[in-house]
Protein: 2-dehydro-3-deoxy-phosphogluconate aldolase
Organism: Nakamurella panacisegetis
Amino acid sequence: MSESLLHRCPVVPVVVIHDAAHALPLGEALLAGGITVAEITLRTAAGIGAIEALATALPELHVGAGSVLVAEHVDQVVDAGARFVVSPGLSVAVLARAQARGVAALPGVATSSELMTAVGLGVTEVKFFPAGLLGGPAAIRALAAPFTSMTFMPSGGVSADNMADYLAIPAVPAVSGSWMVDPGLLAEGRWDEVTARSAAAIRAARGSGAFQRVV
């Protein structure tokens, strides 16, 4: 990627949204809490509509699509306004389509073999997933040692309680998680709580030292 995605914001919320009408108040709540990047997953039918709503109304929020599994998904989300795509695994076809459409792609990796493939494809930023089950911060430290040019965004098992442990690693400029955008909060319209959790996450990132690396 020519432009770093992971250095835009140290905390990237993973949003599972069931009603596209919630997209705008959600985006406003995230921005109010200091979060400027959001991943809207394709796990629900409302995902693409939510991406389109946010891309249109809140250009200051860097909106991307998660759970992008096939190349056709790339076309769908980019047409809706997504500015990056995130996948749970590494797909050469997804990476190629993202490059053709001019958007950043963050492939998921779990092993050193997948990291070698990523390096061969010119990828310098990856999602480490599922981070908690794969060994957490210790696993990333071990993988970062031979892959000195790679930066990691851990996802899966990352929480408010352990995010600072990940962000203390120089190779981790950002983490992703869903605690600040819990589906229950969205369903109940508790936007103030989304803002509060987002602000707390940004404060924690600042305290970890990642904020200084990002800004």
In short: The first helix runs from residue 23 to 32. The two ends are 19 Å apart (CA to CA). The first strand starts at residue 11 and ends at 15. Strands lie at 11-15, 37-41, 62-66, 84-86, 104-106, 108-109, 125-128, 151-154, 175-177.
